[in-house]
Amino acid sequence: MAEDLGRLAVDLLDHGPLPMPSLALLVRRVHDIGMSGWFAAVIFLPYIGGLIALIFTFIPTQMRANAHGPAPVANIPR
To answer: Average model confidence (pLDDT) for the chain?
Structure first.
């Protein structure tokens, strides 16, 4: 019993802080492609949520400003 509680404590300390920043980064990425941040909620879908989030990372950033701010690509000197 005490061994299980120790394992739970280690798991919470190890994996507990990661979901919130990951979700925040996904919301920013979804904004970069011009979609609502609510699309980041797909990460909570079992089995396919992670795959859809991975697909979001391969969609190119919009080259113009959108409702969420200026295009990040426009700020890169060429």
So the answer is: 79
What does the alpha-carbon distance between residue 70 and residue 35 come to, in Å, rounded to a whole number? 14
Cα 52 to Cα 29: distance, rounded to the nearest angstrom: 13
Identify which of 18, 30, 24, 20 has the alpha carbon closest to the alpha carbon of residue 57. Answer: 30
DSSP, collapsed to helix, strand or coil, labels residue 66 as strand
What would the pLDDT profile of 26-56 be if each residue is shown by its tens digit?
Answer: 898 888 888 888 988 888 888 898 898 889 8
User: What DSSP string runs through 23-59?
Assistant: HHHHHHHHHHTT--GGGGGGGGSTTTHHHHHHHHHHS
